[in-house]
Amino acid sequence: MTALQGSHRDLTTGSITSGLWRLALPMMAGGVLFSTLHVVDMFFVGKLGPSAIASVGMGGSVMFLLGTLFMGLATGTTALISRAFGAGERDNANHFAMQSLTLALFGSAVLSAVGYFCSPALLRFLGAEGIVLEEGIAYLRINFLGAYFMYSVFVIGSILNGAGDAVTPFLVMSLASLVNIFLDYVLIFGHYGFPALGVRGSALATVLARVLACLAGLGLLFGGVLRIHPTFRGFYLDFYTMWRIIRIGVFSSVQMLLRSTMNLIFIKIVALFGMPAVAAYTIGLRLRGIGLLPGFGMANAAATMVGQNLGARKPDRSERSALAAVGFACAIMTTVALAFMAFAPSLVAIFTDDPEVMRSGVRFLRVSSIGLITASIGIVLGRSLNGAGDTLSPMIITFIGLWCIQIPLAWLLSQTLKMGEMGIWYVWVFASLIQAVMCAMWFGAGKWKTKKI
Q1: DSSP label at 394?
Q2: Which of 8, 50, 69, 224 has the fewest other C-beta atoms within 10 Å?
Q3: C-beta neighbour count of 25 within 10 angstroms
Q4: What is the pLDDT of residue 103?
Q5: Would you kindly state where each structural domain of the chain is located, as residue ranges?
Q6: CA distance 163 to 168
Q7: Is 290:339 a contact under the CB 8 Å cutoff?
Q8: Are residues 380 and 322 in contact, defined by beta-carbon separation less than 8 angstroms?
Q9: CB 334 within 8 A of CB 110
Q10: pTM of the prediction?
Q11: Backbone dihedral region of 235: left (phi > 0), alpha (psi from -120 to 50 degrees) or beta?
């Protein structure tokens, strides 16, 4: 057994706190580095002006929307592989990994073709026009050409996370993120003999870095140096296993689809107040996303712990793992929320010096930060349910919270009650609270403990 293979301890025995942090820390670190990349990218793009920020913001929202298929695939993969590892079924885990990678290949081919040709229509729907539309189309099409490498990285990470290996994805994405930042500097502004490509350079840098990450991840997976080792030996298309992955992940995909389409609707509502408001919203979302990284890291750790312990027939340990993760996430997010409220002007100023964008961005960040704590509760418990294979319940909760409450209320406050964009910002806090309460109630009912996958 190699050093890499032997560096992971059993997650079904021993200290729950130690197991959670052993998984969560590299996930958090990887998330911070990944988001730092987005911050640097937005910093560089911000030097090109508000129209460039709006182009990247709209294009990024579309990529997230269409990438929900792969997020569902990742959820189904983690659930099956973590159960297999908990039950000591390594051969099954390797088989699940091969089928998941095959699904990623087929899915990305379709997504690339559809996304490339539909880019103009998608951006027009969001209200893009003029230079924002032109640059947004170029940004999207470059990203869609590299869709396989971009989205397969998530699937590779889900395979390793399900096996209890959070360190390898962190190392791979660390290398790719550093390369991406360097390529951003070179390709956006034109250095070392390269032309200044602007927004196109940002997209190209992202794709090239994901190519590196994907190839490195695949090399390690098939190289036999990790806990999990998919192989082409005896490989066949197992449509039943593919169906199991899809069946588990489809509700997670729909959940993410609900979130991403909600974001598109929000951008459309925000756009009624002008492109500076869209730029402020884009900056605020990036910063809020960074703030939620500790919560997501702890949530993903909880999902693996829940899945492996259910596989080992230890449902009570699964529950204790999830609740411990909620406590840790809330403590961390309280600190993050206070820091965001205190340093909001300095944080927004990293991306823009436009007074109107600054003013709106600071308001959004300060108001939405209040909801970070309750949001982390919903995220941790939702991911814990996903780790158990229960993806339908979080999807329903998301639908109620976003589409039945958040979107209608945002329109009511901003338009009907004439609160302007501030009405949209306030809705984030209320919706996060409602979703946290619903997640806690369903998790407490305990039906997920007997979920068959």
Answers
A1: H
A2: 224
A3: 17
A4: 92
A5: 15-450
A6: 11
A7: no
A8: yes
A9: no
A10: 0.80
A11: beta
pLDDT interval class at 416 (50, 70, 90): confident
Question: Angle at Cα 52 formed by Cα 49 and Cα 56, nearest 5°?
Answer: 145
The DSSP-derived string for 147-166 is HHHHHHHHHHHHHHHHTT--
What interhelical angle do 130-145 and 90-125 show, nearest 10?
Answer: 160
Average pLDDT, integer, range 324-344: 93
Give the pLDDT of residue 8. Answer: 54
**Alpha carbons 94 and 79: distance in angstroms, whole number:** 13
Q: What are the CA-CA distances from residue 217 to residues 158, 176, 224, 386, 440 (Å)?
A: 11, 11, 12, 24, 35
Q: Residue count of the chain, please give it.
A: 453
Tokens of 124: 């027009």
**250: which 2 tokens?**
């489809």
Compute the distance between CA of residue 369 and CA of residue 24 in angstroms, rounded to an integer. Answer: 22
Sign of CA dihedral 333, 339, 340, 341: positive
How far is residue 205's CA from residue 182's CA, in Å, rounded to a whole number?
8
Amino acid at 137: I
Q: Which amino acid is at 330?
A: C
Place of tokens 């389409």: 261
What token pair was written down for 85? 């590892």
> Tell me: the pLDDT tens digits for 297-308?
999 999 999 999
Please, how many CA atoms are within 13 Å of residue 51, restricted to the half-sphere of its CB? 9
Please give the span between the terminal C-alpha atoms of the chain, in angstroms, as a whole number: 30
> CA 43, 48, 51 angle in degrees (round to 5)?
105
Mean pLDDT over all residues of the chain? Answer: 87
Give per-residue pLDDT as tens, 172-231: 988 888 898 899 899 989 888 888 888 889 899 989 999 999 999 999 999 988 889 998
What are the helix (H) ranges across 350-391? Answer: 355-369, 372-387
SS3 396: helix
Interacting residues of 338 by C-beta distance below 8 A, sequence separation 6+: none
What is d(CA 350, CA 284) in angstroms, rounded to the nearest whole number?
Answer: 12
Element (H, E) at 440: helix 421-445
Asked if 153 and 293 touch (Cβ cutoff 8 Å), the reply is no
